[in-house]
Amino acid sequence: MAVLHAWRAARVTPLGELNAPPRMTAVALRLAVQVVLVWSLWRGLYAHSGTTAGLSRDQAVTYAVLAVLASRLRELDQFTGRDTVLQHMHFGTIVYWYLRPLPPQRYYALRAAGEQLYGLAWALAGYLVCLAAGIVEPPRSAAVAGVFVLSMLLGQWVLYYVMLVLDQLCFWTIRNNAAMLILLFAQNLLSGVYAPLWFFPDWFVTMSAFLPFQATLSVPLSLYVGRIPLSDAAFQLSVQAAWVVALALFTRLLWRRAARRVISQGG
């Protein structure tokens, strides 16, 4: 029975897309357009230069395209299923999360796992197509590939907790649309989604080192393209693991405090 509950929770958001073929077509088209535009942009930026910020043209293009593909891991339409924390708080139905057979924190984790596995299928398919087309470079060695996979796993784990903290803010702010937009922009900027962090000033890079955002994407992609050498991989992986532990403890505390704010009438 527990396995059945877990399976039902994990497939909530993916089913919303699988049952809507036009939405899947739109996702594929948007992803293809993003990859082409990013590929064209970075090739154009490096048209008259060699190495910039420690990155060659091929490294920069590979980094940027992989960042677009990685964004599909958590970029699903949760609002259609009306099962986001923000919506439940707005409609006063968050109390039902505490009446289900699964605890709310486990339900949230299982649903996020299903979303990331579904997003991984999109990202992996896009990666194979880009690799075959020569848009991105392959890993320089099997060791680099292995470290990249491990770092990406830890990065997605950190990202899960970062997004969880944003959702947990709803228990105190009820409607935090503005805060969500600001924090999502900060996440994308500081994690290197818009551009590799090495293109930013030194003070910006130093500041971001004290935040968990770059551990979500910048570190894995930098290991892949070789901007971070394998000799520094152990340190970077340990930092990512430390953020996982710290955020896990923090969100666990927030879950406990959030439960005290839920009343029988709803949110």
Please give the domain count: 2
Count of discrete alpha- or pi-helical segments spanning 4 or more residues:
12
Low-confidence region ranges: none
Question: What is the terminal-to-terminal distance?
Answer: 29 Å
**β content, as a range?**
under 5%
Number of strands: 0
Provide the residue-averaged pLDDT: 83
> Which structural category fits the helices and strands?
mainly alpha
Shape: globular
Largest sheet: none
Order of helices and strands: HHHHHHHHHHHH
| Helix proportion range | 55-70%
Organism: Streptomyces violarus
Keywords: Membrane, Transmembrane, Transmembrane helix
Protein name: ABC-2 type transport system permease protein
Provide a quick synopsis of the model.
This protein is mainly alpha-helical.
